């Protein structure tokens, strides 16, 4: 089961991902990111992973497939609130070096404004 | 200890596979990271078999056998779908995956990083994947 919600705080778009992102559900995460990338006003994205229980390569692949688009469109994305086991999956392939991953929402906000300036 | 699970080739069954593997590993290790990595490895192989070898056909099935003891765990996954030629598998670089914006292709890379042994074989229209991991003492 996956539950994805898009909210907005000031100019930051927040995607809250709850449940499992696997080969059957990663499409929903993909759709949420596509929706935001298509909105030209969206430049700052936070992924709230505090309720993310599991991620497989299908979910990692979704994040990786947007890295170039984000660069092209000058969009900054930060993930926060990942559990140890979910963060570990990003680390196995070194994706924690390619994506911005921080501990909590406060740090995520700071990171977004830091990399924006 | 040996356990078996049979699932039909639908992506929605992956959760059942993960729950089964987690349940069987928990009595043997309390390392949450290792359990999640092993669950992930089996999930990746089964997702590939369901999607690529069996085209998500619910009339087809895959069988998972978990053999676990205090030393380690062996997963034996069998199906009758399209054969996967492991010898032809070329490991993609992460940079390559980012540049091509391909959303797949890194599952097997994860499995190879996680497991100590990964083997694929085919015999008489039946394919077998063996995954082995030794528990650290």
Automatic annotation (TrEMBL), chain A:
Domain STAS span(s) in chain numbering: 2-112
Protein name (Swiss-Prot/TrEMBL): Anti-sigma factor antagonist
InterPro entries: Anti-sigma_ant (IPR003658), STAS_dom (IPR002645), STAS_dom_sf (IPR036513)
Source organism of this protein record: Marivirga lumbricoides
Source taxon at top rank: Bacteria
Family classification: Belongs to the anti-sigma-factor antagonist family.
From TrEMBL, chain B:
Organism per entry: Marivirga lumbricoides
Cited Pfam families: HATPase_c_2
Coiled-coil residue spans: none
Domain of life: Bacteria
Protein's recorded name: Histidine kinase/HSP90-like ATPase domain-containing protein
Keyword Cytoplasm belongs to the record: no
Keywords linked to the UniProt accession: Kinase, Serine/threonine-protein kinase, Transferase
Domain Histidine kinase/HSP90-like ATPase: 11-131
């Amino acid at each position: 089961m996956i539950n994805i919600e898009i909210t907005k705080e000031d100019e930051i778009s927040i995607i809250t991902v709850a449940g499992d992102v696997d080969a059957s559900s990663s499409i929903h995460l993909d759709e949420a990111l596509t929706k935001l990338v298509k909105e030209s006003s969206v430049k700052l994205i936070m992924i709230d992973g505090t309720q993310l229980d599991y991620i497989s390569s299908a979910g990692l692949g979704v994040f990786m497939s947007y890295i170039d688009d984000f660069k092209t469109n000058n969009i900054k994305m930060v993930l926060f609130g990942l559990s140890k086991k979910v963060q570990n999956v990003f680390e196995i392939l070194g994706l924690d070096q390619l994506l911005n991953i921080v501990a909590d929402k406060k740090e995520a906000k700071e990171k977004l404004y830091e990399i924006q300036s | 200890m040996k356990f078996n699970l049979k699932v039909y080739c639908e992506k929605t069954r992956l959760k059942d596979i993960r729950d089964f593997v987690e349940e069987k590993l928990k009595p043997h290790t309390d390392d949450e990271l290792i359990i999640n990595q092993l669950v992930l490895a089996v999930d990746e192989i089964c997702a590939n078999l369901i999607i690529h070898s069996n085209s998500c056909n619910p009339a087809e099935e895959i069988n998972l056998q978990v053999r676990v003891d205090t030393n380690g765990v062996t997963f034996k996954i069998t199906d009758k779908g399209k054969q996967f030629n492991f010898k032809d598998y070329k490991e993609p670089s992460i940079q390559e995956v980012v540049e091509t914006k391909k959303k797949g292709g890194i599952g097997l890379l994860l499995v190879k990083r996680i497991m100590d042994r990964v083997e694929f074989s085919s015999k008489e229209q039946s394919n077998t994947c063996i995954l082995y991991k030794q528990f650290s003492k």
